[in-house]
Write a structure and sequence with these properties.
The chain is of the alpha/beta class. The chain has 4 domains: about 60 residues, no CATH class; about 110 residues, PRD domain (PTS-regulatory domain, PRD), CATH 1.10.1790; about 140 residues, Response regulator (Rossmann fold, 3-Layer(aba) Sandwich); about 140 residues, Mannitol-specific EII, Chain A. The protein contains 21 helices and 9 strands. It is globular and about 85 Å long.
Length: about 475
């Protein structure tokens, strides 16, 4: 913003001015940002002895509206524009919970955080101010399910602004959802090592990075996420700092990383941090470079890079937490022995009980989980019917989930479910907010195919269902 303002002033000094549409002016004039820029330009005019035309004030206000700013948006909800945006955010969060089959424990806070991001995004798109998201490909690669679910919810935002949203902006929104999922799905453990995270890439990225690092280090306590300005003022009572930018020396080890970590980034960071801890505890340290040097003295190395890569993999294999392990596919979460075929059941409550019985018998859930699923339908309505004849009852992990899994009930005669009907009832039990996403995505893809959906609804034996599940278990969105 500072550099942009400097260039605006240089342009104006050369008597080159912008023109802002009169309708845009009416909208911009109602914002607090416009009043702030107006005050700023008044001081600049006096200090630099230049005249700043009204159109330039509106022009810079557009950029301020489009900037990443953390603020309390409550007073600004007076405008109809922001009320409409808040309604969009609420619907996006509601749909994301529905599609992901999860329930945020702090939905109001999630809505507020997403609103903080979508307000500047709204003005960026509205006024054609494009931003580059260098993390887009990393988000799509490392969090494909979250990115796909986000794309399914952004149509509300697109309807509001009257145009489609590019993948740069979708990735930013996905980072907010992904960060919140990880925040609620990872429990902090008390530990003897303390870590501070310094991130300058905004709220969503900070939350996502924090969750990744918490999942990576099982014996490290995160003391918080700080900005560069906060880092320079903090009393550093930590063992090391992980930062997305180089930092001034303050006597504490600093590891500089990418804002979104891939497997190679995690391996390198683990190697460096483990090396730091090993030195302090006088443990034996395996240096890949030393081993390479020894081997080179007594043997001919045909492929230096390949040997180096294999040695690094052997000595510094990444620690995989349960939440970071490869997500199971549909076939793994919904095996044949958890599929039940019946002609009919007496009620929808009975349908949920029968559908959940295999999970209960195999120790995946407790009785309380079944009661909670039924209670949710009574309280909220038939939200579990997410497609014709297809219902997905579920509850939260702390309602009685022991292990992540699915089970299915296939009915010949549909059951009435509060003014809707269902023939396929798939019970979902997930230990956290992430383990089931890949399988759920594959299941939704199966039921989005009219032909395959008809086949599974009309199936007369378990093998027909299992065959379709196996086919879609290799599918990726």
């Amino acid at each position: 913003m500072l550099y942009g303002f400097i260039f605006f002033i240089k342009r104006m000094k050369k008597q080159s001015f912008v023109k802002v549409d009169s309708i845009e002016k009416q909208v911009i004039k109602m914002t607090d940002e416009y009043e702030g820029v107006k005050s700023l330009c008044k001081h600049v005019s006096q200090d630099l002895d230049i005249t700043i035309p009204d159109d330039e004030i509106y022009y810079f206000a557009k950029y301020l509206l489009s900037a990443k700013v953390n603020y309390n948006f409550s007073p600004q909800l007076e405008s109809e524009e922001m009320k409409a945006l808040l309604h969009v955010v609420e619907r996006m969060v509601a749909d994301f919970q529905l599609y992901a089959a999860i329930e945020f424990r702090e939905p109001k806070q999630m809505i507020q955080n997403l609103m903080l991001h979508l307000k500047p995004a709204y003005y960026r798109i509205k006024y054609g101010i494009e931003v580059e998201n260098a993390l887009r490909d990393l988000v799509i690669q490392n969090y494909p399910e979250v990115f796909h679910l986000t794309k399914k919810t952004v149509h509300y935002f697109e309807d509001l602004i009257g145009q489609s949203i590019n993948e740069n902006e979708v990735a930013f929104i996905a980072m907010h959802f992904g960060g919140w999922l990880r925040k609620e799905g990872v429990m902090l453990e008390k530990s003897r090592k303390r870590m501070l995270i310094v991130c300058t890439n905004g709220l969503g990225t900070s939350r996502l990075l924090e969750s990744q690092l918490e999942g990576l280090f099982s014996d490290v306590q995160t003391t918080g996420v700080a900005s560069l300005r906060e880092y320079e003022k903090l009393d550093l009572n930590v063992d090391f700092v992980v930062s997305t930018i180089p930092l001034p020396e303050r006597g504490v080890p600093v590891f500089v990383i990418n804002p979104v970590l891939n497997n190679e980034d995690k391996e390198q960071l683990l190697k460096k941090v483990n090396s730091l801890f090993e030195h302090s505890s006088k443990k034996q340290i395996h240096s890949v470079e030393t081993v390479m040097d020894i081997v080179g003295r007594y043997a001919v190395i045909e492929d230096d890079k390949a040997l180096l890569r294999e040695l690094r993999r052997y000595f510094h294999a990444p620690i995989k937490m349960e939440s970071e392990a490869m997500k199971p596919n549909l076939c793994e979460l919904l095996p044949a022995d958890r599929i039940v075929l019946k002609k009919q059941v007496a009620s929808w409550e009975n349908a949920i009980k029968v559908a959940a019985a295999p999970l209960l018998k195999q120790g995946y859930i407790r009785e309380s989980y079944i009661s909670k699923m039924i209670e949710n339908v009574i309280k909220i309505g038939p939200y579990i019917v997410i497609s014709d004849y297809f219902a997905l009852p579920h509850a939260n992990s702390d309602d009685g989930v022991i292990k992540t899994g699915m089970s299915m009930l296939h009915l010949d005669i549909p059951v009435d479910l509060l003014e809707k009907t269902a023939k396929i009832i798939v019970v979902l039990a997930s230990l956290d907010n992430e383990q089931h996403l890949k399988a759920l995505s594959q299941l939704r893809k199966l039921f989005s195919s009219k032909e395959d959906k008809d086949h599974i609804v009309k199936a007369t034996n378990k093998n027909q269902i299992v065959k379709l599940i196996r086919t879609y278990s290799t599918e990726m969105d």
